[in-house]
Amino acid sequence: MRILKPEVAKARKEKILRWMVQQYVETRRPVGSQMIADGVLKDVSSATIRNIMAELEQEGYLYQPHTSGGRIPTDKAYRYYVDYLANVQKMAAKEREQIEKQYDARVNEVNNMLVQTSRLLAMLSGAAGFVYTAQVNDQRIQRLDFLPLAPGAMLAVLVTQSGTVRHWPVHMAQVISPAKLQVLSRFINDEIAGHTLAQARQILWQYLHSGHRELAGVADVATQVLKDMSAPKTGGDELYVEGIGRLLENTTQEDYEDLKQMMRVVEERERFSSLLNAKLAELDKADKRMNVSIGSENKTPELKNLSIVSTTCRVGDKTVGMLGIIGPKHMEYTRVMALVNYIGSLLEASMNHWNALPLEDNDL
Amino acid sequence: MRILKPEVAKARKEKILRWMVQQYVETRRPVGSQMIADGVLKDVSSATIRNIMAELEQEGYLYQPHTSGGRIPTDKAYRYYVDYLANVQKMAAKEREQIEKQYDARVNEVNNMLVQTSRLLAMLSGAAGFVYTAQVNDQRIQRLDFLPLAPGAMLAVLVTQSGTVRHWPVHMAQVISPAKLQVLSRFINDEIAGHTLAQARQILWQYLHSGHRELAGVADVATQVLKDMSAPKTGGDELYVEGIGRLLENTTQEDYEDLKQMMRVVEERERFSSLLNAKLAELDKADKRMNVSIGSENKTPELKNLSIVSTTCRVGDKTVGMLGIIGPKHMEYTRVMALVNYIGSLLEASMNHWNALPLEDNDL
DNA sequence: ATTAGCACTCTAAAAAGGGGGTTGACAAAA
DNA sequence: TTTTGTCAACCCCCTTTTTAGAGTGCTAAT
Fold first, then answer.
1. Dist. CA A27–CA A96, nearest whole Å
2. Nearest residue of chain B to residue A241 (CA atoms)
3. Testing the interface with A: which of B108, B177, B228, B263 to mutate, by most A Cβ within 10 A?
4. pTM (2 decimals)?
């Protein structure tokens, strides 16, 4: 009678679990003991493996959809896989280079970096890619300018230090002279650059109420601007989701219902936004960057068959957004995690690049 | 033997065709003679109807997927239905009001009118909604301004007369002083407002080469701007598609393949863009507004099971864009056409509103 | 021109039949 | 104590068969 060392037994168990996850992700069919015996544990019989599988089932890592017909990894198994079994895949230098090239091309070629990043994520992962920018309220302002459009209308253009550009029309009852606009613009950019939008509102408000000399002539306009700045549309978050179609490509009809569910969640922007926002806050608090939410780990029940792989994005000391992919629970986690991580670092670098060349006083 | 007047015979034929289209759209099942006899032509026997159906099939309006099992309208039938049989549905005042309210709310609440319009289209039609803006090159400019960002970088902001806002970063080797920027900005807005981007390029170029006095100090910056203005990213078209998920809601698994195909087309933005652009040019040339492309009428073979209902959008005398929905061939054309038409008019009004308050010289 | 009737066709859904792979159990072997 | 061989039982999935139903074309009668 052999006595098996506990470590050896555990290692074998993990080997089986790892292989089952990978196998299931690949084939999308329940995995049976025979298959394991043939595939990865050739020195052990299927009966032994059955015993181990029974244990794993007991512990909640596997379940059988039907009485006889192989077993399927549970969410707990995926979690264990992601946490302990998936050796972090480093991207091949060649692959990195390719991505980098494509990233540069996309971001330079077209104006909206964030949309392009989501598309790239989608393309390379085969799932849907998203980029979420947090409340602009909390981001540092780089500039806020006003362009005259019509006697009673102007266009406010806000640039944050992460390079995000927002613009919104401002309508006023009376005529605004461009001269006034310039005074206001200069004042604002002198006083509030580097502060967050929320802070800027306060500063502006204080100056207004203390009857600041420079602001005297433009008090009416400033008031209106202040009002518009408080509106949710101005300071709100933004969400880009691209490549939902890709999901259809890589799924069979079995996933039809899951997909429907996902679409429902994703297309209800507010819902998905607030979900991401919560996740963002959570990660930020724990000072973590990457996150994988597997199936039922998502609070939203509609996502119980989907997983989200995401990473945060920081500019300076602020977490300004989040990006990642959302796809079927049975995805190639190792590959996708490496991908999200890498593209995240590229985006972050891009955003920080804006920041790297701060305006000097004497430039103004 | 009764002799049937030809008009009566034709009317009956049309009645059958109309009913078949409606019935098929509703049930998605082949329509049989019995069904018609029971449903809409109670005073005639099924045999008679069979004869008429045979004729319609001969003429290419119907076809049988299998030898026995009812008939299905062909694209030709849909076309005939849309052109002659679908009495243009007027939207109920109540419905109009509701849409208008929602439209106002959406457009005011958030910054991007075009995205919101696509979403509204998608929501109300149950299919995917799109808004396409033609080449900005061909649109009249309202303003072009430059905001200083960093010593060697600025943000160009372009506003067209339809209210479209484009912005792109301009990088330069040397430092740009805000003073220079202002000179350039003033010059540009004095000289090129009201012209198209293409014209503006020419004007600026001419001034540059004739050594215009005012431009002397900013020639370097102007050259760079000119270069950037020619880049495709600046003058290109733009496409928003929203609500692809809605399509899944309203389709069964039978349409799975069609949907996949559609997604492929729509997600290849360039492809769909050029398709819409061609359609736009065609409509503009024929001085038409609305268009319905049914199934195989689309040049793209992947769209053979889909229809596009679209309408153009004009600002002043220029056709600046297009909006509509794309969905399964078997859609409620009457309802959708009315919808697209109405939302189109709202969007057009919104865009023209920008235009309605032109800048007076003395305002500047 | 229209209709009733009939034979025929074809599909979609239900029923029936294997085959293959899996499981649990147990006893024997290591 | 752990592993293994073996076997009956299970259940899914695939294929085939059957059945019911609906629709058609044709023809003769009206």
1. 27
2. B242
3. B263
4. 0.85
Q: How many residues does chain A have?
A: 364
CB atoms within 10 A of CB B33: 22
Tokens 């003679």 label which residue? B33
B281's CB contacts (< 8 A; 6+ apart) are none
Alpha-carbon distances, residue A81 vs A179, A290, A304, B248, B363 (angstroms): 63, 16, 18, 32, 66
* Of B90, B108, B96, B185, residue with least CA distance to B147: B185
User: What does the alpha-carbon distance between residue B334 and residue B356 come to, in Å, rounded to a whole number?
Assistant: 32
- Residue B315: half-sphere exposure toward Cβ, Cα within 13 Å: 26
Query: What span, in angstroms and rounded, lies between the C-alpha atoms of B81 and B84?
Result: 6
The tokens describing A194, both together, are 């580097």
Substitution target from B113, B149, B326 for chain A, most A beta carbons within 10 A: B149
Q: Give tens-digit pLDDT for B99-138.
A: 888 888 776 655 578 888 999 999 899 899 999 988 777 7
> From CA A85, how far away is CA A77, in angstroms rounded?
10
Q: In what order do the strands lie in the sheet with A290-294?
A: A238-242, A128-133, A318-328, A306-315, A290-294
Q: Do B245 and A244 touch (CB under 8 A)?
A: yes
What are the tokens at A187?
A: 């004042």
pLDDT tens digits, B215-270: 777 777 778 777 777 766 655 678 899 888 878 877 777 777 778 888 888 888 88
Pairing of strands A290-294, A238-242: unpaired
